[in-house]
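Propose amino acids for all 450 sites.
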């Protein structure tokens, strides 16, 4: 049984060469010390405990799959690689999985897309070992240079050349694979090839319950730490823990929202504690059954927060900031190239039942990318205007956005405003663009600091 193919042997060879240089060169002393500290950080009790749980879980899964004839010993290499590259690394991405709950589902589906199948087929056949040893550092160098070239416009010509080189290599690899399929189909037609194809996505699918368990466990762990500071009374702390486990159980998004509410509230009595739970479930009920808001007053916040979902700007929940101030905001979305790209976010601001201000904010972190920023803002502002007012942007507003000029206009009972804020002494002459649709006059509006 061949444990490694020529391409994998070539990768291992270069990793050994790099490791020897890394361990022996006097120039690598500082890097070695940093690497040692990083390793020391990995071997703490909490991480070792989680890794032990992961390994135990995967051993059970593999045993179960082998009993069903869905795994055999020839898959040991692929399984070890999967555990390191997917299983282990996913434990450091739990926060990302909270934001994108379909991550693993998409990972499994991606394995069965046409491009993934082509990449898998190409990987079945490898060149002679000496050719693979020459190719691996060459490709690594090209990919590294391409990543650097993509970050700066001045390297555009180099970027085009590198992309062309990679495409040429890809065509050559596909041609070689087609030739081998015709002349040596037996290598591809082995039973092992079928196992190689479906075992990694199958492991990912079986790993989902463990990831969900870790998400719940780490969330509760963070919550209990927060409660130590938010509730001074020991009885209240025990009561909050008990109520949270009973009322929220696996609903970690509700749990996190409740903790934010506890941090804002002052827990002096059992009644105060119960009120925090009532508040969360009241909001939850409002989200499921949003009330209609008269047009002249504003918008339903639970509808307004989703106005730009199709444009890729999805806000979090509509939450209380202070007693009469509520908000929802999206993460900053980057949309340009460069070391410090431009970014955009969407805000909804108002009171408990009414959204009164819809805001887009663009940070132009480099004045040389002003045109891109204006085009992005115009696209998003148009979508927001259509969603909230059922009207396109006026020609005057489009002109103001294109020229980065502050401007304000009224349409019925709404004020539409563009604010340009220049940043003094900014290295790249950056500035902010704020586009607001408001149901109240600017002089009476309270903008949150954002």
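Proposal:
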């Amino acid at each position: 049984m061949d444990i490694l193919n020529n391409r994998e042997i070539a990768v291992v060879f270069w990793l050994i060469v790099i490791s020897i240089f890394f361990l022996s060169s006097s120039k690598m002393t500082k890097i070695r010390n940093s690497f040692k500290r990083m390793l020391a950080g990995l071997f703490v009790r909490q991480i070792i405990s989680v890794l032990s749980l992961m390994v135990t879980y995967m051993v059970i899964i593999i045993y179960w799959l082998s009993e069903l004839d869905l795994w055999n010993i020839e898959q040991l290499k692929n399984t070890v690689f999967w555990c390191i590259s997917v299983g282990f690394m996913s434990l450091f991405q739990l926060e990302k999985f909270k934001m994108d709950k379909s991550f693993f589902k998409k990972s499994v589906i991606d394995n069965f897309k046409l491009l993934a199948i082509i990449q898998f087929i190409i990987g079945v056949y490898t060149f002679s070992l000496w050719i693979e040893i020459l190719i691996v550092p060459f490709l690594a160098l090209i990919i590294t240079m391409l990543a650097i070239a993509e970050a700066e416009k001045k390297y555009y010509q180099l970027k085009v050349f590198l992309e062309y080189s990679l495409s040429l290599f890809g065509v050559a690899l596909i041609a070689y694979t087609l030739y081998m399929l015709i002349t040596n189909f037996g290598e591809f037609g082995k039973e092992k090839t079928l196992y190689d194809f479906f075992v990694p996505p199958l492991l990912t699918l079986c790993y989902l319950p463990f990831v969900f368990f870790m998400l719940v466990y780490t969330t509760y762990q963070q919550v209990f730490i927060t409660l130590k500071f938010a509730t001074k009374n020991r009885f209240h702390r025990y009561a909050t823990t008990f109520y949270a486990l009973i009322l929220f159980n696996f609903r970690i998004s509700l749990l996190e929202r409740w903790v934010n509410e506890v941090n804002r509230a002052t827990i002096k009595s059992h009644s105060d504690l119960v009120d925090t739970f009532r508040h969360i479930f009241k909001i939850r009920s409002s989200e499921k059954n949003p009330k209609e808001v008269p047009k002249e007053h504003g918008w339903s916040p639970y509808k307004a927060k989703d106005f730009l979902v199709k444009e890729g700007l999805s806000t979090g929940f509509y939450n209380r900031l202070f007693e009469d101030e509520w908000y929802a905001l999206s993460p900053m979305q980057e949309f340009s190239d460069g070391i410090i790209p431009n970014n955009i976010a969407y805000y909804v601001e108002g009171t408990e039942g009414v959204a009164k201000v819809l805001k887009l904010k663009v940070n132009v972190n480099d004045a040389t990318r002003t045109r891109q920023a204006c085009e992005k803002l115009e696209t998003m502002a148009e979508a927001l205007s259509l969603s909230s007012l059922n009207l396109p942007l006026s020609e005057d507003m489009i002109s103001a956005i294109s020229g980065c000029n502050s401007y304000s206009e009224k349409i019925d009972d709404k004020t539409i405003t563009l604010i340009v804020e220049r940043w003094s002494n900014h290295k790249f002459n950056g500035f902010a663009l704020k586009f607001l649709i408001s149901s109240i006059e600017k002089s009476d509006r309270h903008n949150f600091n954002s």
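The beta strands are 319-322, 325-329, 333-334, 343-350, 355-364, 407-411, 414-422, 431-438. The CA atoms of residues 212 and 250 lie 9 Å apart.
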